Predict the structure.
Amino acid sequence: MKKPNDVIELLQSIKNRPGMFIGKRSVLRLKCFMDGYLCAMQFEGIDIKPDVYYSFIRWLSEKYQIRSVVSYDTILTDALHDDELAFDAFFEEFEMFLQSVIINKL
């Protein structure tokens, strides 16, 4: 496995092989993993371009009309009442977000 160049590549790797990275399909485990990973990269001074990840979190909050500070794992788990479904929804929403970013840049 090659080292991911950015957050998008890392998330794609996790989507493809969640068991290898977080043990099972779980949006809570995904959130914990990403928090730890981004923190470690920051401590090491490695820029993996996390802006798209943080922009996605804001986009998701707006989509679900969340006005308070709540993370995506809570938004999706509250909406779907299932951690594995929320994991799958994270990647569906992330793909929609990426498509909207591409369309808005055209």
